[in-house]
Automatic annotation (TrEMBL):
PANTHER family: UDP-ARABINOPYRANOSE MUTASE 3, UDP-ARABINOSE MUTASE
Its biological purpose: Probable UDP-L-arabinose mutase involved in the biosynthesis of cell wall non-cellulosic polysaccharides.
GO biological process, one term: cell wall organization
Protein name: UDP-arabinopyranose mutase
Species assigned in the record: Amborella trichopoda
GO CC terms in record: cytosol; Golgi apparatus
Main location: Golgi
Gene Ontology MF terms: UDP-arabinopyranose mutase activity
Family according to the record: Belongs to the RGP family.
Cellular location(s): Golgi apparatus
Entry EC no(s): 5.4.99.30
Length: 360
């Protein structure tokens, strides 16, 4: 996919990168990402100097900066976990966010051409989604596709797309048990497809190759309490994805998955991962039914109102699973308070144009 002469949404998009190391990986991404502003969230030791290749426009925040900016509310931002990336979502002032991990490189399509992942994410976000009725030719708005026979004309306008979820070649995003069973497995299948995740269907959202419309869904993109001092890790993006999907379904917004691909270069240690994940693997058997059955009242007309209502349900229903969820529900409220303080123009009392979804 060739790059555009003028970068699309250059002044409307921030790229958020969580890291503990020098960002040499950006050299490979330079042709595609250099025109855009970067927000780097440094995890771990705040005294460590992170080197960024020359020529990139960026701002960098470490833990000391987070504590200074948020004060006591900094407790809602995870430490020693990539969940810290959501701080970048909060301080951004742009309409769109693209977030990528520092072990993700530029992939190639089957013709050998480098994939401009950001450009594809933007295409996904700028075209509608179709969550209320599945189109068997996948995304009907792509060149060479359309709505198939039998697709209701009343639904062909689609709805605004809030999230674009990309995939990975090489190292798949597996959990620790699957990593241990299939240590040499690599994803070599390039599927040239984008599809809308249907209303009422949850999905495992991976945060390493993800873009979203911050104005439409930003306050729901909280990656939870993970890492240092918490009983769980590697479920930060999962939690954000489940919350986001419930809220998007309620507000009539869409989520797309499929293209673009990135090249995931490094498999994390499955034994370390198992230690982080094991409670999540057990808990998710109760978390998934919770989110599948979660409903939001019609009074919840903004993302913030939806998220606060969801936090109450987390406290009431998941608090019985483990005290951790009581703490997480409180952090969800703190997150929204901090978001509104840093983003007073987001108008948490103003309803989205769509309001709650009317198609059942």
């Amino acid at each position: 996919m060739a790059t555009s002469a003028t970068p699309i949404l250059k002044d409307e998009l921030d790229i958020v990168i969580p890291t503990i190391r020098n960002l040499d990986f950006l050299e490979m991404w330079r042709p595609f990402l250099q025109p855009y502003h970067l927000i780097i969230v440094q995890d771990g030791d705040p005294t460590k100097v992170i080197k960024v290749p020359e020529g990139f426009d960026y701002e960098l925040y470490n833990r000391n900066d987070i504590n200074k900016i948020l004060g006591p509310k900094a407790s809602c931002i995870s430490f020693k976990d990539s969940a810290c990336r959501c701080f970048g979502y909060m301080v951004s002032k742009k309409k769109y966010i693209f977030t990528i991990d520092d072990d993700c490189f530029v992939a190639k399509d089957p013709t050998g051409e480098q994939i401009n992942a950001l450009e594809q994410h933007i295409k996904n976000l700028l075209s509608p989604s179709t969550p209320f009725f599945f189109n068997t030719l996948y995304d009907p708005y792509r060149d060479g596709a359309d709505f198939v026979r039998g697709y209701p004309f009343s639904l062909r306008e689609g709805v605004p797309t809030a999230v674009s979820h990309g995939l990975w070649l090489n190292i798949p995003d597996y959990d620790a048990p699957t990593q241990l069973v299939k240590p040499r497995e690599r994803n070599t299948r390039y599927v040239d497809a984008v599809l809308t995740i249907p209303k009422g269907t949850l999905f495992p959202m991976c945060g390493m190759n993800l873009a979203f419309n911050r104005e439409l869904i930003g306050p729901a993109m909280y990656f939870g309490l993970m890492g240092d001092g918490q009983p769980i890790g590697r479920y930060d993006d999962m939690w954000a994805g489940w919350c986001t999907k419930v809220i998007c379904d309620h507000l009539g917004l869409g989520l797309k998955t499929g293209l673009p691909y990135i090249w995931h270069s490094k498999a994390s240690n499955p034994f370390v991962n198992l230690k982080k994940e094991y409670k999540g693997i057990y808990w998710q058997e109760e978390l998934i039914p919770f989110f599948q059955s979660a409903t939001l009242p019609k009074e919840c007309t903004t993302v913030q109102k939806c998220y606060i209502e969801l936090s109450k349900q987390v406290k009431e229903k998941l608090g019985k699973v483990d005290p951790y969820f009581q703490k997480l529900s409180e952090a969800m409220v703190t997150w929204i308070e901090a978001w509104d303080e840093l983003n007073p123009s987001s108008k948490s009392d103003s309803a989205l144009p769509n309001g709650p979804a009317k198609v059942k």
